Amino acid sequence: MEIVDLINKKKYGGVLTNEEINFVIENYTNGNIPDYQMSAFLMAVYFQGMNSDESTALALAMRDSGEVVDLHDIHGVKVDKHSTGGVGDKVTLVLAPLVAYLGAKLAKMSGRGLGHTGGTIDKLESIPGFNVVLPLDQFKQQVNEIGCAVVGQSGDIAPADKKIYALRDVTATVDSIPLIASSIMSKKLASGADAIVLDVKVGSGAFMKTKEEAIELSRLMVQIGQKANKKVTAILTSMDEPLGHKIGNSLEVYEAIETLEGNGPEDLTEVVSVITGHLLAHAGVSKTSEEGYLLAKDTLKKGKALPNFYQLVEAQGGDVDFVKDKNNLLGHTKQFVITAEKDGYLETVDALNFGIAAMKLGAGRMKKDDKLDLYVGLDLHKKIGDEVKKGDAIVTLYHNEKGLKDAIKLISESYVIGNTKRTLKLIEETITE
Ligand code: URA
Predict the structure, then answer these.
(1) Do both 86 and 19 map to the same domain?
(2) Where is the Pyrimidine nucleoside phosphorylase C-terminal domain positioned along the sequence (predicted)?
(3) How far is the CA of 18 from the centre of ligand 1 (A)?
(4) Strand 246-247 vs strand 334-339: parallel, antiparallel, or unpaired?
(5) CB 184 near ligand 1, within 6 Å
(6) Both 253 and 335 in a single domain?
């Protein structure tokens, strides 16, 4: 088999066999195929696409390029969730203890933030002492004992994806649905869970800007997962405004705690409850996802899963006293408040720009090795559709001077107060096949 023949086959729209896809991935990972040929191959895929069998073969080949985590010695059904990345997305921080309280097992490997989207691992590191690197045995033991663990993704997971993603980044081949779907699923399948819920964000602050694209991506990821014998559901959730009110690492931990206390923002509470409902149904804890949803909502409302959050923090070496007084998470910065210039309703919020503004303050990375300020960020006091009076606080910036001027300018240009009271649809679609 020669790579040049496979590039040619894909260039003319041919369908690659499993063997051919395995050949490409194996030989690119071990260095036999050089970057210039892989770049041509990726561009051919970009233009000609891949069907669901090819995408599945690609995901499985990338999964098998590294460690496939074996979670068999954790009792019960192991569940996982994945978000395609949004602004203010602190779902995992609430969902992990919630799922543990309700009796499923969440063994979660999460990422760090890049660009305008945050990462769960950075958020957890705003809790002093919280350890995001656990040996596999300890990770599994913790899930067995307390029902959840959240760690950074091991470097050995899907190394082929890592190498290909870096190449896609510099060859304008990131925004290809089969390449995105197989990239995400290779890592999810390598992480070892039996059931996965995919939260595909759609809207201004998301990777997928239109509903059509988001549906196509979701369908493909669900098909890949099911072909790999996993239970998979995808939900499409709106990212036309940030999720909840707070953006920034420690601020998002604060809001997650508020939600676990039963006082969280409606949209965050809803997304967490919907995802948990599907996970509980997959795990057999509830008969249906609706029943699981109601269970999740009731648990949050009554604050019953908050002790499980403290248990998670303690198990991973975090300072429980620090989070028990949650104001500690807000007390490390100065504040600057942007107020409304007129009466009306909040009509639009540019979630992407809010994410960028938080990044400029130091909450996110422009480059992979940028150092974060874990305590800066934004608090958006209004949601789309809320009434606003002139002089009301719209956004509080938690800052340490860095990037303040740029962030104020960007935020001031990134929301609209008008006469229309809009309502957003939060859960746009549920995809099960
Ligand atoms: N996230 C991934 O892991 N892979 C992609 O290709 C895009 C987003």
Answers:
(1) no
(2) 345-418
(3) 22
(4) unpaired
(5) yes
(6) no
Is residue 64 annotated as a catalytic residue, yes or no? no
199 belongs to a structural domain:
yes
The count of domains in the chain is 3
| Residue identifier of the C-alpha nearest atom 5 of ligand 1 | 180
Between the CA atoms of 270, 275, 278 and 284, what dihedral angle is there, to the nearest 10 degrees? Answer: -110
Mean pLDDT, residues 237-242:
93
Q: For residue 131, tell me if it sits in a domain.
A: yes
Is residue 424 assigned to a domain?
A: no
Are 262 and 335 found together in one domain? no
Question: Among 289, 323, 357, where does a domain finish?
Answer: 323
pLDDT tens sequence across 170-229: 899 988 999 999 999 999 999 999 999 999 999 887 888 899 999 999 999 999 999 999
Is the pLDDT at 155 greater than 80? The verdict is: no
H or E element at residue 251: helix 249-261
Please report the pLDDT score of residue 114 as a whole number.
72
pLDDT tens sequence across 74-115: 998 999 999 998 899 999 999 999 999 999 999 999 988 877
Within a domain: 67: no
Is 46:180 a contact under the CB 8 Å cutoff? no
> Does the annotation count 392 as an active-site position?
no
Which numbered atom of ligand 1 lies nearest the CA of 183?
Answer: 4
Which residues span the domain enclosing 377? Answer: 330-418
Complex ipTM value: 0.96
Which residue, 382, 379, 403, is CA-closest to 391?
382
- The half-sphere exposure of 187 on its side-chain side, counting CA atoms within 13 A, is 25
297 in the same domain as 384: no
Whether residue 302 sits in one domain with residue 201: yes
Q: Are residues 343 and 319 in the same domain?
A: no
Residue 230 contacts residue 189 (beta carbons within 8 Å): yes
Instruction: State whether 278 and 394 are in the same domain.
Output: no
- Helix, strand counts (H, E) of the chain: 17, 13
Q: Are residues 310 and 338 in the same domain?
A: no
Does the annotation mark 168 as catalytic? yes
For 431, the 3-state DSSP assignment is strand
Contact 97, 287 (CB under 8 A): no
Give the distance (Å) from ligand 1 centre to CA of residue 165: 7
pTM: 0.95
Strands (E) located in 181-289: 195-202, 231-238, 246-247
